[in-house]
């Protein structure tokens, strides 16, 4: 396939290795990878703040950037969920862009979902020795229904011991603008999440959304419990060095 990368704001600005490793993995699997010019934010920040007109403007930019793409893959369940669940609302009165949005919905995937459910490549030959636990992010789980794909990829990493995360279904408290508007509630939520991460006995925390991982790791550092955190893509990248990606 020709796979277009949706770089996402957070990964592009703060964790570019996530995007670069995603491209390397897809190339290793034999696909052609491109990063279309003009892509920007999915509009989630403006949308969640109630600025629907601004969100609509940004969303049009993203839709236009991927209009000619065969398939679109991103490293964030949150951003892909924005496209799948809220673009139909944004463009309900715009038949032209509603049709374009629906086309993007049908061809866009979160990374683990694409690798496991579309490509059927759960075993990428990765090796990484650690005791890990996995945080299932809210948007990926609740809005996209992604549950098994991330775990399937993790379970196929040789030498990695996967430990259960107590109360894994609880939100980490990030929620983008939520953490800014309601910092005290957000901090209480991430404190509870951090407690469960420590309780798991893991030395590595895995996830599929860098927003969640940034939030949890920041709090763990604050309380002097700096457990290593990695996106599943980063884990695979480290583990696949033996196959020269």
Give a structural overview.
With 245 residues, the chain is of the alpha/beta class. The chain has two domains: 2-117, Rossmann fold; 122-243, Rossmann fold. It is built from 13 helices and eight strands. The protein has helices at 9-14, 16-28, 44-48, 52-65, 77-90, 95-107, 111-118, 138-143, 148-155, 177-181, 183-200, 210-222, 232-239, and strands at 2-5, 32-34, 71-74, 108-110, 127-134, 158-163, 204-207, 228-231. The strands form two sheets. It has a four-stranded parallel beta sheet with strand order 2-1-3-4, sandwiched between helices. A four-stranded parallel beta sheet has the order 6-5-7-8, with helices on both faces. Strand 7, helix 12 (210-222) and strand 8 form a beta-alpha-beta unit. It is globular, with a radius of gyration of 18 Å. It starts with a strand and ends in a 6-residue tail after the last helix. The model has no long low-confidence stretch (mean pLDDT 96).
